[in-house]
Specification:
By secondary structure, the chain is mostly helical. It is 73% helix and 0% strand.
Length: 94
């Protein structure tokens, strides 16, 4: 009777091995689920960035306000007749 019990336990363990450690195991499913979640976060970030870039392109194509803003902020350009004032914060001691 003892051999029969031991044989059945070994058989059950042999049948359970693929479920826990095989190619389609729970551990592998957990890893893939985690990778899918990470990829979903990355995709959402890229979608937000693409949406912002698309809005910026649309603004640059349709209006002069966006072009003027970029010229002022990035290139330091001013219009004819304008006076540019730059305010500097005093240096902190220490």
């Amino acid at each position: 009777m003892r051999w029969l019990t031991l044989t059945l336990v070994v058989l059950i363990l042999a049948l359970q091995y693929p479920l826990w450690f095989g190619k389609g195991s729970w551990f592998r499913v957990w890893q893939l689920d985690r990778q899918v979640a990470e990829q979903h976060v990355a995709t959402q970030q890229l979608l937000a960035r693409n949406s912002a870039l698309s809005a910026e392109v649309r603004d640059l194509k349709l209006g002069n306000d966006a072009i003027e803003e970029r010229a002022r902020n990035e290139l330091g350009m001013i219009r004819n007749g304008e006076v540019f004032f730059q305010l500097l914060e005093p240096a902190r001691a220490g």
